[in-house]
Design goal:
The protein is mostly beta strands. It folds into seven domains: 2-23 and 116-199, Immunoglobulin-like, CATH 2.60.40.1930; 26-113, no CATH class; 204-319, Sandwich (Immunoglobulin-like), CATH 2.60.40.1220; 326-427, Immunoglobulin-like, CATH 2.60.40.1220; 433-522, Immunoglobulin-like, CATH 2.60.40; 530-630, Immunoglobulin-like (Sandwich), CATH 2.60.40.1220; 658-849, no CATH class. The longest helix is centred in the C-terminal third of the chain and has 13 residues, at 784-796. The radius of gyration is 67 Å and the shape is elongated. It starts with a strand and ends in a 13-residue tail after the last helix.
Length: 862
């Protein structure tokens, strides 16, 4: 009996071998009807022979004649006899002695070897009871019996009696136990046994070289490890160095297996020190490796670079005999410190990856030149010790780009500096696409332009609201244009509003560039403005502000950025005034100042303002008018002191007191004198010049009343001499008193002055005396005098606009136009017995009374 080896590990498999020929026995196979094939003789003639094979080979001597021959086989039929036999495989031949007329079966009796079994007892120091293990004879006649069991933490006898079962029984053991296998030999009768010792401690692997994580160490020529096992001892042939040279920290099995060099192996009392030369072909870079070894008992140990971390950790070191080498240089890559990932698309970065860790303080930024232009700055990140991220002013857009690293611009952790290194840069910089429009808003067509800073592999695509809209046409170097008709938009894309435009394309390096989306606006309407003054509005000032407000232009749709319009035409009373209009809010509100058109203000009357404009999309609104009337009320009269005029009696040629050449009115007036005063202009419905029964002179004869122009509204007042004591001319001596009643011009209605008018007149009486040199006192109601004076001046070929002439009526010098005279432009309307009726003409009435050329005279005439 023999057990496999002197030591067994816990969990190991023990093989039991017993050699005992006497335990091998024979068997008699009686009347066997089926061998390797059915025992059956077909129809045949006498003398025919047939070959068969027994079910159990290894035929034995059955008749004890000392040899195995055909006579050791017995058939169950009489018309055939065995004539030959092969003992080792049971093949035999028989021959017919008589004919066989129908298939005939038969049986065979013979003696053969068999595969025997042998029981053995398995016990251990931890389990002295153990179990019975059945061994099986290797061959029917070998006399060698084998079987297996395992050592474990507990005894499990399952399959102990089945030598062919895959799962094997376990015997309980601990470290340093003895396991015993025994059986009883029948001849001679004896107890046969064998033992094996349990080695429960695997060998340890220590003192490895190169040291773990020493990146700055110069390349080492050897791997070395010390393997210790104090029980069964180290199996030197089991030691293996496992090496991974792919440059990362992760070992990829199986890697390269290196066996110890026997010439460099040292045997120690508790183990061995083994060495192996590292292949000289291994390039510089990161290396991962570990060591495995087994003891004699079969226990396996593995090196662990970090025992404090669960599991076995690989050893790492850097092979370094050369300067750092550039692995890749990729333009456009940058490190995102937020997501902790490398991203692409940055136009001013180049990511340089070396084959080993680099010394950050050794980096010379200016030594990295992109197409000859030095880098601006460099960034490093601790999580990427082999990487540099260069910042450049801009990435070249034409041709291959070369990164040139000057000698000594960077070193590895061992201090080995770079030589001159040219590197072709991989282009991951996307083309910079930009979108332009020929207009920001349109009502029909828009030209969409796309430009690229580098050559594209194909024509870029242009999208409107996310859909590709036709193929752009190349119009220049790296320039394309698509004329887009908004009428092709349909569904949700149709209608006014902002339309988003995008563009994308690939450069020659197949890098996708996407333009920043922008938008043009589809605008098909423009509303007419709100105009002020509004139509048919009466404006009571001479300088009203004309306003055109395009309120509806703003916010016509979501995203409307155009709030105003541009003027096409603006007229005031038929004259182009657009150049005088202004806006301060981008064309939303346009204003026209009166002084820019009429320096003296608008004349009283009807005025028409018309305007048309176009928005940025080209929409034009119809000519929009507003009609308004200017009617400026007169200001309150200024107080005037009338100079005293001597009483005029008799001949009108008598001397009259004058002041600076102008007649001075008498400060005292007879009570009978009445003045007809013309206030504000009245309605144009007053009758034209006619003769009425109501208008008569002192003799009762009809008096013609001049037509009042439409623009004036005469209101007649009858005032007593107390009211006009300082404002009339004394003429009683020049007329015959025929009646005590005053004669007045006919009026449609008598208007009694209100308190304000009386106060104004009273102020006029109390005013202080003024001289000719003072400013003219112009009645604001009749400031058309200035216009008339201007016209007179034009007719006379003179620049003067002052009406200075007067007239002599009934022997009285009456001023008829001198604005220095209070209430100038008076005309005689009627004569009464007790006084004169006076009225100041205006407008058409003045023209009637004083035809052009008749109302002016020279100073000598006065």
């Amino acid at each position: 009996m023999a057990l496999s080896g002197e030591y067994i590990r816990i969990g190991g498999t023990v093989t039991v071998t017993v050699t005992d020929p006497g335990a091998s026995t024979a068997q008699v196979n009686a009347a066997e009807t089926v061998g390797s094939t059915a025992y059956s003789i077909p129809i045949a003639s006498a003398g025919d022979s047939f070959v068969f094979q027994t079910l159990n080979p290894l035929l034995m001597d059955a008749n004890d004649d000392g040899v195995v021959s055909a006579t050791d086989i017995t058939l169950s039929i009489s018309n055939a006899v065995p004539i030959s036999v092969v003992p080792v495989n049971g093949v035999f031949t028989l021959q017919l002695t008589t004919p066989v007329t129908s298939p005939t079966t038969f049986a065979v009796t013979y003696r053969s070897e068999r595969v025997d079994t042998l029981p053995v007892k398995i016990t251990s120091t931890s389990d002295t009871t153990g179990f019975s293990l059945t061994l099986r004879e290797t061959l029917a006649d070998s006399g060698v019996f084998t079987g297996t069991f395992e050592t474990g933490a507990a005894t499990v006898a399952t399959n102990a009696t089945d030598p062919a079962a895959t799962a094997r029984p376990d015997i309980k053991v601990v470290d340093k136990d003895l396991v015993t296998a025994s059986y009883t030999d029948a001849e001679p009768l004896s107890l046969v046994a064998d033992r094996i010792r349990v080695d429960g401690v695997a060998p340890t692997v220590t003192q490895l070289s190169p040291m773990h994580n020493v990146f700055e160490q110069t390349f080492s020529s050897f791997f070395e490890a010390r393997i210790t096992d104090i029980d069964s001892g180290v199996d030197t042939s089991s030691v293996k160095f496992h090496l991974d040279e792919d440059g990362d920290a992760t070992y990829t099995e199986p890697g390269t297996i290196l066996l110890p060099d026997p010439a460099m192996t040292s045997v120690k009392t508790d183990g061995v020190i083994v060495r192996v030369r590292i292949p000289s072909t291994a390039p510089d870079g990161l290396r991962s490796w570990y060591v495995t070894a087994s003891d004699i008992a079969g226990g396996t140990g593995r090196s662990d670079a970090d025992p404090a971390t669960g599991g076995n950790q690989n050893h790492v070191f850097t092979s370094d005999q050369n300067p750092p080498q550039v692995v890749t240089a990729v333009a456009g890559e940058w490190y995102d410190t937020v997501s902790k990932t490398i991203k692409t698309g940055n136009r001013t970065t180049v990511h340089v990856v070396f084959n080993e860790k680099i010394s950050v303080p050794s980096v010379v930024v200016g030594g990295f030149r992109l197409n000859g232009v030095p880098a601006v700055s460099v960034q490093t990140h601790s999580v990427l010790p082999n990487d540099l991220f260069l910042t450049v002013d801009s990435y070249p857009t034409v041709g291959p780009v070369v990164l040139l690293i000057d000698p000594g611009s960077v070193t590895d952790l061992s201090g080995i500096a770079t030589a001159l290194v040219p590197v072709t840069v991989t282009d991951e910089v996307p083309p910079d696409l930009k979108i332009t429009f020929d207009r920001t808003a349109t009502n029909s067509l828009v030209a969409i332009g796309v430009t690229s800073d580098e050559n594209l592999a194909a024509t870029p695509s242009i999208t409107v609201n996310g859909l590709t809209r036709g193929v752009p046409v190349k119009v220049g170097e790296r320039e394309w244009e698509l004329v887009f008709n908004v009428a092709t938009l349909s569904g949700a894309d149709a209608g006014e509003g902002a339309k988003t435009v995008g563009a994308f394309g690939f450069d020659t390096a197949n890098t996708l560039g996407v333009a920043t989306s922008t938008a043009f606006e589809l605008d098909t309407t423009v509303s007419s403005p709100t105009l002020t003054p509004t139509g048919l509005e009466v404006v009571t000032e001479a300088f009203p502000l004309i306003t055109a407000y395009y309120a509806a232009e703003a916010g016509e749709y979501v995203g409307d950025t155009h709030n105003g319009v541009s003027l096409i035409l603006a007229t005031m009373d038929g004259v182009q005034v657009a150049p005088f209009m202004s806006t301060v809010d981008g064309g939303s509100t346009w204003t026209l100042k009166a002084a820019d058109v009429y320096p003296d203000g608008y004349e009283d009357g009807i005025h028409i303002f018309e305007i048309t404009a176009v928005d940025v999309a080209g929409n034009v609104h119809p000519l929009t008018p507003t009609v308004f009337e200017v009617k400026v009320p007169p200001p309150a009269p200024e107080p005037v002191v009338e100079p005293v005029v001597d009483e005029i009696v008799g001949d009108a040629t008598e001397d009259v007191p004058v002041d600076d050449g102008q007649p001075v009115e008498d400060a005292t007036t007879p009570d009978e004198i009445v003045e007809v005063i013309e206030p504000d202009p009245v309605d144009s419905t007053l009758p034209s010049e006619s003769t009425t029964d109501d208008a008569v002179d002192g003799d009762g004869n009809p008096v013609a009343v001049p037509e009042v122009p439409p623009e004036s509204e005469p209101v007649t007042e009858v005032l007593t001499t107390e009211d006009l004591s300082e404002a009339v001319i004394a003429v009683e001596d020049a007329v015959e008193v025929a009646s005590e009643d005053p004669v007045v011009a006919p009026v449609e209605a008598e208007v009694v002055p209100d308190a304000s008018e009386e106060a104004a007149l009273a102020g006029e009486s109390a005013a202080t005396e003024v001289s000719d040199s003072a400013n003219p006192n112009v009645d604001p109601v009749f400031d058309r005098e200035a216009e008339l004076a201007a016209l007179d001046g034009e007719d006379a070929g003179s620049e003067s606009s002052t009406l200075e002439s007067g007239g002599a009526i009934f022997g009285c010098n009456l001023p008829l136009g001198n604005t220095n005279v209070v209430g100038g432009e008076y005309a005689l309307l009627g004569v009464g017995l007790l006084g004169l009726g006076l009225r100041r003409p205006a407008g058409a009435l003045r023209e009637l009374l004083f035809p052009s050329g008749d109302e002016s005279g020279s100073e000598s005439d006065d």
